[in-house]
Amino acid sequence: MSDTLTKLAYQTVQQGKSYFGLVHKAVSTQLLNFVASPAIDEKTKTTKFSLELIQTIQRRMSEILETDWQDVERGVYPASLLFDNPWEDFFRYYPVVWLDMPELWQRANAKRYQEFDAEVETEGLPSYYVQNFHHQTNGYLTDTSANLYDLQVEILFNGTADPMRRRILAPLKAGLQAFSEVLPSQIKVLDVACGTGRTLRNIRGMLPKASLYGVDLSAAYLRKANQLLSQFEGTLPQLVQGNAEELPYLENYFHAVTSVFLFHELPPQARQNVINEAFRVVKPGGTFIICDSIQVGDLPELAPAMEWFPETFHEPYYRHYMTDDLVARLKNAGFDQVSEQVHFMSKYLIAKKPVAVAPEVTKMATGIAID
Ligand SMILES: C[S@@+](CC[C@H](N)C(=O)[O-])C[C@H]1O[C@@H](n2cnc3c(N)ncnc32)[C@H](O)[C@@H]1O
């Protein structure tokens, strides 16, 4: 396919996804108002986006798709990644999204945020994690939740979840230049809170030979990630169930560490703990990249959308996250050269671990005294 045709095909697919997301949200909101009226929270019912806000969102969506395309043209990753959509899963699980909705609405309306089926094992998990994030049935803890997650995120972001995830790829590739003497197959990259593996899938598309690793607290999401990632040829990413606050890896092990859409779901101290752990496991000269929601001040014109998000979805730590100083947290852990980017509704923090780490910084990040 010629470049023009490929770009056109990509824009058409994305347009389709965007309409799908918009129509789904419009129909479900109408239905919610009809079925749940008058019991449903007035705030949830009446939240409306102004025409100006919708136009801003549409403009920013077009911009991120253009950036996505430009990164393909620059050779950062292959065009095939733009068309890597799990269609089979989408068609299979879309009816389940609707079937799950009445129960989800009831829970949301009754403000029941920590409700799990009796057979769901929650023991040993951090209490902040045992939540119905986004009002999801059984939170992150069942196979059904894992099967619906990617579809739900695609609907929420009108098909731009992967274009947002892919914005980590250019800084990741640039960061790995520091290890240009290392064989591609010896490069080790960790994705923290890998979920169903979408970010690892995108990284695999760019780095077909690298050793990839993923860690997440949810066994169900890791099972899903394993299923999706094993569709690729070549070495399987190594997936481990574990807490990002206590990464089960040696220090100075990875050439780069990434984390996508995790930090807004963590309480403040956990955010710092995860950053400290990323600092510990990344090699000197290595890069840590965070992708998460925009914060207050990043894009003032999108402030109403940021307000809407935690009002509509159960996101207990989002309000604190909105104003948290992540740059200060990264520097506190020992990272230097922290740079920031903003694309569509996400922001990116790209942090370097200094080549020579001062002893007191190692002490701070690991909690272990060294002489
Ligand atoms: C919003 S999802 C993001 C998943 C994935 N990174 C993506 O891009 O779709 C948040 C993920 O973080 C995981 N998670 C939350 N707290 C965690 C923690 N303390 N340690 C490890 N994983 C955690 C959840 O299980 C879930 O998979």
Question: Could you explain the architecture of this structure?
Answer:
The chain is an alpha/beta fold and 371 residues long. It has a single domain, classed as Rossmann fold (3-Layer(aba) Sandwich). 48% of the residues lie in helices and 13% in strands. It has 14 helices and seven strands. α4 (87-109) packs across α5 (143-156), α5 (143-156) crosses α9 (219-229) and α10 packs across α14 (359-366). The longest helix has 34 residues, at 3-36. The N and C termini lie far apart (60 Å). Residues 366-371 have low confidence and may be disordered. The protein binds S-adenosylmethionine. S-adenosylmethionine is lined by residues 126, 129, 140, 165, 193-195, 198-199, 216-218, 221, 243-245, 260-262, 265.
Q: What's the story with the biggest beta sheet?
A: 7 strands, mixed
Q: Please give the count of helices.
A: 14
Overall shape: it is: globular
Q: Taking Cα atoms only, what radius of gyration do you get, to the nearest Å?
A: 20 Å
Low-confidence regions: 366-371
N- to C-terminal separation? 60 Å
CATH A-level architecture? 3-Layer(aba) Sandwich
- Helix percent band: 40-55%
Q: Count up the domains.
A: 1
Q: What name is given to the CATH topology?
A: Rossmann fold
Q: What is the topology, as strand order, of the major beta sheet?
A: 3-2-1-4-5-7-6
Order of SSEs: HHHHHHHEHEHEEHEHHHEEH
Taking all residues together, what is the mean pLDDT?
89
Q: List the ligand species.
A: S-adenosylmethionine
**SS-based structural class?**
alpha/beta
CATH class term? Alpha Beta
Quaternary structure state of the chains depicted: single chain
How large is the share of residues in beta strands?
5-15%
